[in-house]
């Protein structure tokens, strides 16, 4: 998605060879028209898949998930993160390890909002090691729902998450797939090379 | 806002005389068309105020804040919550006590995204005791920015936050102001009585 790639190049900050900061339009300050364009792009890619629900993770997944839900005409559910869960009645839960923060959080989704009849589009802002996506997939599986695929705003294609998930036969749609952050520069994979 | 009040009556769950759960459309599962209507309503109420930025708090404030920003044509910034902040360089921070959870969190906003030239609309999903709003106002003040007002999706008008803030001369626009949750029923104040 050229508009997003241009925004990453103009406004993203490369902090190291593995860290890209996009706080100015996605993770802290949100650019609403860009989120709308992202929602339209995901909706267009998944419009034939009979999606009934979008599942994401708080907080940075909420804006793109909601805009995609708006265009597709389906609700967006955000899993909640907690250090540890005491009340797990009536909740699907999974553990997600963050390598960047070196901590493990439980994530949870109420059983009220994910049913076995659902066709789910899992979404997240970033895909790096794939831990958050795996946690969300675990929850989809617990619900017995059907997974249509995963929509990722920015993939760090040089990290192992994307490969891991694609090898399982999961469809991943990535709007900007970064091949390298070396020397402070952002490089992208060509769209054709990802698929 | 009648559409929102109807949704609260049909889908909200009264858990006690002070707790209303709206997880099915606002706090966990999000109803995108309702968020769009909420965004349009807030934008209409604040369209003459020269808003340059919306400031909210993760996670449940993000959806209504982004939709309002989309209609007003301005970015939405969400303050981040953390148990305690170690890295506070280049951040505005404030403490927010939650009476329901009986815990105090620090909230923070990067100095990059809030400037003294900004005219800020503070938004949140709920207003009860007013602690979150006070934390956000503290951050607006630290930035030296101008506060246009506060936009609240659901106010629990029988709790003290709204009175406290209005007595300071702050403009609050509330879309649904609850007068009582007694006997498992939701009652609303008339719009005219709030102002």
From TrEMBL, chains A, B:
It catalyses: XMP + diphosphate = xanthine + 5-phospho-alpha-D-ribose 1-diphosphate. NCBIfam families: PRK09219.1 (NF006671), XPRTase (TIGR01744). 5-phospho-alpha-D-ribose 1-diphosphate binds at residues 128-132. Pathway: Purine metabolism; XMP biosynthesis via salvage pathway; XMP from xanthine: step 1/1. Its EC number is 2.4.2.22. This is Xanthine phosphoribosyltransferase. One of its GO terms (molecular function) is xanthine phosphoribosyltransferase activity. Xanthine binds at residues 20, 27, 156. It comes from the Bacteria. It is found in: Cytoplasm. It comes from Planococcus wigleyi. InterPro entries: PRTase-like (IPR029057), PRTase_dom (IPR000836), Pur/Pyrimidine_PRTase (IPR050118), Xanthine_PRibTrfase (IPR010079). The keyword Zinc does not apply. Transmembrane segments: none annotated. Belongs to the purine/pyrimidine phosphoribosyltransferase family. Xpt subfamily. Keywords: Cytoplasm, Glycosyltransferase, Purine salvage, Transferase. Homodimer. Converts the preformed base xanthine, a product of nucleic acid breakdown, to xanthosine 5'-monophosphate (XMP), so it can be reused for RNA or DNA synthesis. The keyword Transferase applies.
